[in-house]
Amino acid sequence: MTKDDSRGGVRGLLRSPLVWPALTLVLLIALNLVVHPAFLSITLLNGHMFGAPIDILNRAAPLTLVSLGMTLVIATRGIDISVGAVVAIAGAMAATLLVPTITSAGYPVYIAVLAALGVGLLSGIWNGTLVSFVGMQPIIATLILMVAGRGVAQLLTAGQIIPISTPGYLFLGGGYLLGMPFSVWVAAVIVLGTFALMEGTALGLFIRAIGVNPTATRFVGLRMKAIVFLVYVFSGLTASMAGVLISSNVRSADGNNAGLLLELDAILAVTLGGTSLLGGRFSLMGTVLGALIIQTLTYTTYSIGVPPEANLVVKAAVVLVVSIIQSPIARFYILFAFGKRSVTP
User: Fold this and answer.
1) Is there a contact between 270 and 70 (Cβ–Cβ < 8 Å)?
2) Are 234 and 69 a contacting pair, CB within 8 Å?
3) What is the reported pTM?
């Protein structure tokens, strides 16, 4: 193999949309290995796997679900900043139904989960209707639910933190299946199902077409409004499932703080994964990597001793650096370094 062939192979690899988030994740893992050589070690105790990688996967599961819905919304040139509020509503709804009262012994787990998913479905229908059929700007439509939804969650919990002790419900976010946290299995099934739907049917192509050129898409007869509507419904469902996992994991529902700023992490995960905020191009696997990057970064800041009050600043700085590296101008210079002289920024 000649030097030119080698450089050409590297250039081809660098053009892959997944290579940049993958490299970022590898660098974060390498940093953790330098600080803690046993970072990747996994311990098996009572048939359950424990360790930093398992903890990161477990905590990244809800963010992955929220980011999955956000990816498809952004691919259609939209945005959904209400997902954090939907997470809070779903957790509050489930907790309200599970906790026994004077007049009720509490509802079964499946009723609580279905009710939580139901409020996510209604939230998605609300956002989808405002965006698709009313014609409201996505950021304004979802801002309405972001504010009102947080209020609804606080009304459901009466402004209090509701503890949850139902074993079946606690298993969803804190239990184990085949050694792995159950929440990881839930996220994996939903990710793989969504990937199969997007890549194995024409729906993924339609979503990309809407993001690239909505006018042309409408002229060729594609039911653009219906597809955009369904995308927001899906985002509401994934956010509500994340709310179930989060409230189960922390064993409580907090209408004030549950899912707070989660929409920002989801948008970051989507962009770090290579999805364009201009719409059209999207990568579900890239989004999964983006969610893992954010959760690994959070773990890293704590493990290296960054003060809690400085966590957000450090996190923002790292995301800024990663975003700059993934920018078109940075890619141009990197490709130029490998001999692609004809590339233009």
Assistant:
1) yes
2) yes
3) 0.88
